[in-house]
Design a protein that fits this description.
single chain; Rossmann fold; 9 strands; binds S-adenosylmethionine; S-adenosyl-L-methionine; methyltransferase; transferase; protein-L-isoaspartate (D-aspartate) O-methyltransferase activity; cytoplasm
Length: about 220
Protein backbone atom coordinates (compact mmCIF):
# COMPACT_ATOMS: atom_id res chain seq x y z
CA UNK A 1 0.00 0.00 0.00
CA UNK A 2 2.75 2.48 0.99
CA UNK A 3 4.50 1.59 -2.28
CA UNK A 4 1.33 2.41 -4.23
CA UNK A 5 1.17 5.79 -2.50
CA UNK A 6 4.85 6.45 -3.26
CA UNK A 7 4.23 5.62 -6.92
CA UNK A 8 1.12 7.85 -6.98
CA UNK A 9 3.25 10.64 -5.53
CA UNK A 10 5.91 10.27 -8.23
CA UNK A 11 3.22 10.37 -10.93
CA UNK A 12 1.58 13.41 -9.28
CA UNK A 13 4.88 15.30 -9.37
CA UNK A 14 5.69 14.36 -12.97
CA UNK A 15 2.26 14.70 -14.61
CA UNK A 16 0.50 17.38 -12.58
CA UNK A 17 3.42 19.55 -11.51
CA UNK A 18 6.62 19.25 -13.53
CA UNK A 19 4.70 18.84 -16.81
CA UNK A 20 2.91 22.14 -16.12
CA UNK A 21 6.14 24.06 -15.70
CA UNK A 22 7.13 23.92 -12.03
CA UNK A 23 10.89 23.35 -12.15
CA UNK A 24 12.29 24.18 -8.68
CA UNK A 25 13.99 20.89 -7.74
CA UNK A 26 13.63 21.54 -4.00
CA UNK A 27 9.88 21.89 -4.42
CA UNK A 28 9.60 18.79 -6.62
CA UNK A 29 11.69 16.72 -4.19
CA UNK A 30 9.67 17.86 -1.16
CA UNK A 31 6.40 16.97 -2.86
CA UNK A 32 7.75 13.54 -3.81
CA UNK A 33 8.60 12.95 -0.15
CA UNK A 34 5.64 14.27 1.87
CA UNK A 35 2.94 11.56 2.26
CA UNK A 36 -0.05 13.66 1.22
CA UNK A 37 -2.48 10.80 1.97
CA UNK A 38 -1.74 11.30 5.69
CA UNK A 39 -3.12 14.88 5.46
CA UNK A 40 -6.61 13.98 4.20
CA UNK A 41 -9.51 12.28 6.04
CA UNK A 42 -9.03 8.50 6.11
CA UNK A 43 -11.94 7.76 3.75
CA UNK A 44 -10.38 10.06 1.09
CA UNK A 45 -6.87 8.62 1.14
CA UNK A 46 -7.26 6.87 -2.21
CA UNK A 47 -8.05 10.29 -3.76
CA UNK A 48 -5.13 12.10 -2.08
CA UNK A 49 -2.95 12.22 -5.19
CA UNK A 50 -5.68 13.40 -7.57
CA UNK A 51 -5.44 16.68 -9.48
CA UNK A 52 -7.87 18.59 -7.22
CA UNK A 53 -8.42 20.00 -3.73
CA UNK A 54 -10.16 17.79 -1.15
CA UNK A 55 -12.42 18.58 1.83
CA UNK A 56 -10.79 18.29 5.29
CA UNK A 57 -13.87 19.18 7.42
CA UNK A 58 -15.20 22.47 8.85
CA UNK A 59 -15.86 23.56 5.22
CA UNK A 60 -12.10 23.82 4.65
CA UNK A 61 -9.87 22.19 2.02
CA UNK A 62 -6.40 20.85 1.30
CA UNK A 63 -5.31 22.65 -1.87
CA UNK A 64 -4.74 21.03 -5.28
CA UNK A 65 -1.16 19.64 -5.44
CA UNK A 66 -0.29 21.80 -8.45
CA UNK A 67 -1.33 24.99 -6.64
CA UNK A 68 0.73 23.98 -3.56
CA UNK A 69 3.71 23.52 -5.91
CA UNK A 70 3.18 26.85 -7.69
CA UNK A 71 2.84 28.79 -4.43
CA UNK A 72 5.90 27.10 -2.95
CA UNK A 73 7.93 27.88 -6.06
CA UNK A 74 6.79 31.53 -6.03
CA UNK A 75 7.97 31.74 -2.42
CA UNK A 76 11.53 30.72 -3.57
CA UNK A 77 12.29 28.95 -0.28
CA UNK A 78 15.95 28.52 0.72
CA UNK A 79 17.25 26.02 3.31
CA UNK A 80 18.06 28.67 5.93
CA UNK A 81 14.70 30.45 5.65
CA UNK A 82 12.04 31.04 8.29
CA UNK A 83 8.54 31.02 6.79
CA UNK A 84 5.13 32.14 8.04
CA UNK A 85 2.04 30.42 6.64
CA UNK A 86 -1.46 31.82 7.15
CA UNK A 87 -4.08 29.04 6.95
CA UNK A 88 -2.63 25.76 8.25
CA UNK A 89 -5.60 23.67 7.07
CA UNK A 90 -4.40 20.05 6.90
CA UNK A 91 -0.76 20.99 7.54
CA UNK A 92 0.32 19.67 4.12
CA UNK A 93 1.68 22.96 2.73
CA UNK A 94 3.58 23.48 5.99
CA UNK A 95 5.02 19.95 5.74
CA UNK A 96 6.19 20.60 2.15
CA UNK A 97 7.84 23.84 3.27
CA UNK A 98 9.27 22.14 6.35
CA UNK A 99 11.25 19.77 4.09
CA UNK A 100 12.93 22.74 2.43
CA UNK A 101 13.45 25.45 5.05
CA UNK A 102 14.77 25.81 8.60
CA UNK A 103 11.55 26.75 10.36
CA UNK A 104 7.85 27.17 9.59
CA UNK A 105 5.30 29.06 11.69
CA UNK A 106 1.73 28.36 10.62
CA UNK A 107 -1.39 30.14 11.90
CA UNK A 108 -4.88 28.57 11.74
CA UNK A 109 -8.12 30.30 12.74
CA UNK A 110 -10.16 27.15 13.58
CA UNK A 111 -8.87 25.34 16.68
CA UNK A 112 -10.15 21.87 15.66
CA UNK A 113 -8.53 22.21 12.21
CA UNK A 114 -5.23 23.22 13.84
CA UNK A 115 -5.44 20.25 16.24
CA UNK A 116 -5.92 17.82 13.33
CA UNK A 117 -3.03 19.45 11.45
CA UNK A 118 -0.81 18.94 14.52
CA UNK A 119 -1.78 15.24 14.56
CA UNK A 120 -1.06 14.95 10.82
CA UNK A 121 2.32 16.64 11.21
CA UNK A 122 3.20 14.41 14.15
CA UNK A 123 2.31 11.33 12.11
CA UNK A 124 4.84 12.27 9.43
CA UNK A 125 7.44 13.33 12.01
CA UNK A 126 8.24 17.01 11.65
CA UNK A 127 10.21 18.98 14.21
CA UNK A 128 10.57 22.41 12.60
CA UNK A 129 6.88 23.34 12.17
CA UNK A 130 4.94 25.29 14.79
CA UNK A 131 1.15 25.56 14.54
CA UNK A 132 -0.52 28.51 16.29
CA UNK A 133 -4.28 29.13 16.66
CA UNK A 134 -5.28 32.71 15.91
CA UNK A 135 -6.21 35.34 13.37
CA UNK A 136 -3.47 35.09 10.77
CA UNK A 137 -4.51 38.36 9.12
CA UNK A 138 -2.52 39.96 11.96
CA UNK A 139 0.51 37.83 11.07
CA UNK A 140 2.69 36.58 13.92
CA UNK A 141 4.72 39.64 14.90
CA UNK A 142 6.46 37.95 17.86
CA UNK A 143 8.59 35.84 15.49
CA UNK A 144 8.95 38.36 12.62
CA UNK A 145 10.61 39.11 10.28
CA UNK A 146 10.11 36.13 7.94
CA UNK A 147 12.01 35.29 4.74
CA UNK A 148 8.69 34.30 3.22
CA UNK A 149 4.98 34.62 4.03
CA UNK A 150 2.43 32.43 2.29
CA UNK A 151 -1.31 33.04 2.63
CA UNK A 152 -3.36 29.97 1.71
CA UNK A 153 -6.84 31.51 1.93
CA UNK A 154 -8.48 34.15 -0.29
CA UNK A 155 -7.88 37.73 0.87
CA UNK A 156 -9.79 40.85 -0.29
CA UNK A 157 -6.36 42.56 -0.22
CA UNK A 158 -3.03 41.62 1.35
CA UNK A 159 -3.47 42.11 5.11
CA UNK A 160 -1.47 45.25 5.95
CA UNK A 161 0.36 43.76 9.01
CA UNK A 162 1.92 41.07 6.80
CA UNK A 163 3.90 43.62 4.76
CA UNK A 164 5.64 44.78 7.97
CA UNK A 165 6.65 41.19 8.82
CA UNK A 166 8.54 40.37 5.58
CA UNK A 167 12.34 40.61 5.79
CA UNK A 168 14.26 42.64 3.22
CA UNK A 169 14.55 40.46 0.10
CA UNK A 170 11.70 38.28 1.42
CA UNK A 171 8.63 37.17 -0.52
CA UNK A 172 4.91 37.33 0.25
CA UNK A 173 2.58 35.06 -1.76
CA UNK A 174 -1.20 35.41 -1.51
CA UNK A 175 -4.44 34.86 -3.46
CA UNK A 176 -6.08 38.29 -3.63
CA UNK A 177 -9.48 39.17 -5.08
CA UNK A 178 -13.12 38.33 -4.54
CA UNK A 179 -14.50 35.60 -2.25
CA UNK A 180 -14.81 33.26 -5.23
CA UNK A 181 -11.95 34.08 -7.62
CA UNK A 182 -8.53 35.54 -6.92
CA UNK A 183 -5.25 36.50 -8.54
CA UNK A 184 -2.20 34.76 -7.09
CA UNK A 185 0.32 37.52 -6.40
CA UNK A 186 3.93 37.50 -5.21
CA UNK A 187 5.44 40.59 -3.54
CA UNK A 188 9.23 40.81 -3.07
CA UNK A 189 10.56 43.32 -0.53
CA UNK A 190 13.31 45.64 -1.76
CA UNK A 191 14.05 47.94 1.17
CA UNK A 192 10.95 50.03 1.73
CA UNK A 193 9.39 48.99 -1.61
CA UNK A 194 7.69 45.88 -2.91
CA UNK A 195 8.02 44.48 -6.43
CA UNK A 196 4.81 42.71 -7.36
CA UNK A 197 4.08 40.09 -9.95
CA UNK A 198 0.92 38.21 -10.74
CA UNK A 199 0.75 34.48 -11.50
CA UNK A 200 -2.89 34.10 -12.56
CA UNK A 201 -6.33 32.99 -11.42
CA UNK A 202 -7.00 30.72 -8.43
CA UNK A 203 -9.97 29.88 -6.17
CA UNK A 204 -9.43 29.57 -2.41
CA UNK A 205 -11.71 29.43 0.63
CA UNK A 206 -12.00 32.88 2.29
CA UNK A 207 -9.50 34.39 4.69
CA UNK A 208 -11.68 35.45 7.62
CA UNK A 209 -10.45 37.97 10.16
CA UNK A 210 -9.59 41.55 11.04
CA UNK A 211 -7.86 42.25 7.71
CA UNK A 212 -9.81 39.61 5.76
CA UNK A 213 -13.46 38.85 5.10
CA UNK A 214 -16.19 38.93 7.73
CA UNK A 215 -17.09 35.45 9.00
N1 LIG B 1 -2.52 25.30 3.54
C1 LIG B 1 -3.58 24.35 3.81
C2 LIG B 1 -3.16 22.94 3.55
O1 LIG B 1 -2.00 22.69 3.17
O2 LIG B 1 -3.99 22.05 3.78
C3 LIG B 1 -4.84 24.69 3.06
C4 LIG B 1 -5.47 25.90 3.62
S1 LIG B 1 -7.22 26.00 3.42
C5 LIG B 1 -7.38 26.25 1.70
C6 LIG B 1 -7.45 27.62 4.15
C7 LIG B 1 -7.31 27.62 5.67
O3 LIG B 1 -7.22 28.99 6.08
C8 LIG B 1 -8.50 27.03 6.40
O4 LIG B 1 -8.09 26.02 7.26
C9 LIG B 1 -9.08 28.22 7.16
O5 LIG B 1 -9.65 27.88 8.40
C10 LIG B 1 -7.85 29.09 7.33
N2 LIG B 1 -8.10 30.51 7.62
C11 LIG B 1 -9.07 31.32 7.14
N3 LIG B 1 -8.95 32.56 7.67
C12 LIG B 1 -7.87 32.51 8.51
C13 LIG B 1 -7.22 33.47 9.34
N4 LIG B 1 -7.64 34.74 9.48
N5 LIG B 1 -6.15 33.07 10.06
C14 LIG B 1 -5.69 31.80 9.98
N6 LIG B 1 -6.27 30.85 9.20
C15 LIG B 1 -7.33 31.21 8.48
Amino acid sequence: MEQDFAQARRLMVEHQIRARGVSNERVLAAMREVPRHLFVPEDLRSAAYGDHPLPIGEEQTISQPYIVAVMTELLSPEPGDRILEIGTGSGYQAAVLGRIVREVWSVERIASVAAQAERNLEAVGTANIHVVVGDGTLGLPEHAPYDGIIVTAAAPSVPEPLFDQVADGGRLVAPVGSRHLQDLVCYTRRGGDFVVRSWGGVAFVPLIGTYGWEG
